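Researcher: Quick sanity check before group meeting.
Model: Go ahead. Protein one:
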Amino acid sequence: MEQTFPPLKNDLLLRAARGEQTERAPVWVMRQAGRYLPEFRETRKDHEFFEMCRTPELATEVTLQPIRRYKGLVDAAIIFSDILVIPQAMGMEVLMNPGPFFPDPLDTPSDVSKLSPTVDVDKELGYVFKAITRTRTMLEGDVPLIGFCGAPWTLMGYMIEGGSSKTLQKAKTWLFKYPEESNALLFRIADICVDYLVGQVKAGAQLLQVFDSNAGDLSPYDFITFSLPTLKHIASKLRERLTSQSLPSVPLTLFAKGASPTLAARAGFDTIGLDWTVDPRDVASLPVEVALQGNLDPSVLFGGREAIEREVCRMSQAFLAARGGVCRGWIANLGHGITPGVEPDDLKFFFECVHKYSSPGSKAMP
C-alpha cells in the first residue's frame, strides 16, 4: 500500500539534485547522524551498533538528532544505517569492533557458495524500510530523507578483505586472478542493491546515494572494467523498476571517492559527489544537468572559525564559477564523512557559512 506522508516544506535538495537553479546551495553532511554528537553517544552507550541499525525506533531517533540540533540550517536527513547490511543480508557475519570485522571473509571464489543463493530484501532488510517510513513521518516534511547503499566494488572489498584495508590487496587480487568470478559477484551484489534501493523508495526515501568509497583504489581502467558497469546497472535497473511499479523517480547520487568525476558521471546518476581533492572548476565540462555535491575537506572543521569561513567561501566561489556564476545543481557537503572529534557548534558554523556564501549575490570575505 502506498505510504502517505506530510507535505515537504523544504525541497531545496531535490531541486539542486535535478540540476535546477536554487537561491543557495542545500547542505547536509555524510555521517550526519554520528559520533560527533553527544546525544548520539548517549544513545549509543546502551546499544550495539548494528542493534541501532536494526531497531527502527533507535535508527529514527539518531537520524533525527542532527535535524533537531540544526533545525533551519541543514537541508536533508540521511537514514541511520550502514553499507554493510547488504553483506549481512547475503549471509555473512559482520561485527563492529570498533570498525567493521568479518570473522569469515571470502578467501577464494569457492567461498561464494557460502552466501545465501537468493536474498529477500523485505525479510532481511525490512528493518531499514520500517526505519525509513517511521523517520519520514516524524520529519513532518521539514527536510527530505536520503536513503543509501554501498556500491558493489566497495562491498566486495569488505567481503574479501574482512574489514577495512589500506591496500585492498586481497580484493584486487580477485579482480586480476579471477575476473569472471569477480564480475559475477559484483553483479550479484548490484542486483541486491537495486532491490534494496527500490524498497527504500517504497518506504519513503526521497533521494538515494550510492557510496563507492573504494573507487579511488582502482586505476581508471579497472574502474571502467569492474566498478562502472555495476554502477550503470544499478542506475538503469533502478529507474526501470521505479517506473514499472509507479514509484517516485527520485534523484540518484553517486559518491565514487577518489575516482575521476568524468568517469563516475558515465554511470548515469543525477548527482556526482566530489571529494576534497577535486576543484569543481576542473569538472566544469560536465553537462549542467549533472549536479555536483561536495566538497570541503572534513579536517577544515578542526581548523577554527576563521578557517571554516575562509574555506567555505573559497569552496562556494569555486562551485559558483564552475556553474557560470549561478547556484545551479550544487549540493554543499563535505568531501567525505564528518569525523567523530568535530565540535557540534563548528559544524553549525559550517552550515551557517554555506547559507552565507553559496548564493550568487554573496560577497567574498575581505
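Researcher: Fine. The other one?
Model: Protein two, sequence then structure:
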Amino acid sequence: MAGLLCGTKRKKQVSDLHEEGKNAINAPMLPAGTEIHPEDTLMEENAERIMLDPTSRDNLKFKDLLKVLIDWINSELEEDRIIVKDLEEDCYDGQVLQKLFEKLSGRKLNVAEVTQSEIGQKQKLQTVLESVNELLRPHGWTIEWSVDSIHSKNLVAIIYLLVALAMHFQAPIRLPEHVSVQVVVVKKREGILQTALVTKELTSTTEMMMGRFERDAFDTLLDHAPDKLNVVKTSLITFVNKHLNKLNLEVTELESQFADGVYLILLMGLLEDYFVPLYNFFLTPESFEQKVHNVAFSFELMQDGGLKKPKARPEDVVNLNLKSTLRVLYNLFTNYKNSD
C-alpha cells in the first residue's frame, strides 16, 4: 500500500513539474501577478487576448477614472432606474451601453430590450457599436473597442468607449487627465502563448480630447505667437475692467479670476444692464460643482443675450484652461466692445 501511495505521489509531482514547465514555456514574459486562465490556453491559433495588468487596478488615477465614469452613467440613467456598480460586469451585454447611447443621442435603437443568450447580447452590441462608431468616427476618434472585446469584459475597451462618448457629448464631468495603464497582450502562435506588456493611454488632456481636430486662431496664438497673446490678454483685461470697475471689482489674471463663474455672471449683468438675483448662483462657491454651476449659468445668460453658445465647456473654464477662458471673453468682447 505504501508503495502504491509513493508511486501516486511521484506521478503527481511529475505531472505538476510538467505543468509548471509548460507554463514557463508558454508564458515566458508574463508579468508577476497576472494569471493565465484556462480559456486562454484554448485560444485559437493567431488569436489575441488583452488583460489589464493587476498593478494598474491599484493606480489611484485609474480608480478615480472608474468612479467618475460610473457616477456619470448612473446620473444619466437615473430615470431608467439603472445602477452600475462594475463596468466589466454591467456593460458587457450591451444593455447599459444601449440605454446610455439612446439617452445621450436622443435616438431609439432597434434592439431587443432583454437578451439572455450570448448570440442575442452580441447582436445588441453590434447594433449599438455600429451606431456609436458611425457617430464618432467622422470626428477623428480611433475605434479602440469591438463587439468581442466588450462582450469578453475587456475593461480597457469599455473605458475607451465611455471616455469617447463622454467627450463627444460634452458630459458635465471632469475626467482625470493622463491616465495610463499596462495591459498584458496574449497571442497564440504555433500553439504557444506569447505575452507582452503594453502601455495604453486612456485619457490625455481634456483640451486634446475635446478639440481633437479643431485647431483655431487661439491654438496658433498659444503655440507660435506668445507675444501677441499678451496683447490680446491686455485688451480683454481692459475690456472687462471697464465694466467690473462699476462694482469696484478688478481683474488682473484672466486664467484664475473667471474660474468660479462669479465675475462672468456679474459681467453679463453689467453688459445687459440688469441685476442678477443672488439666489441664482453661488456668490462664494467652494466646490467644483458649484463653480461649474456658475459658469454654466453665465453661458445661459450669454445665450439669453443673443450670443451663440460658447464652444468651451464650463468644466474647462473652472479647470483654469486659458484657451477656453479666452474664447468666452473674446466672444463677449466682439459683441459688447462698444458698450458703455
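Researcher: One line on it for the slide.
Model: Residues 34 and 54 are 6 Å apart (CA to CA).
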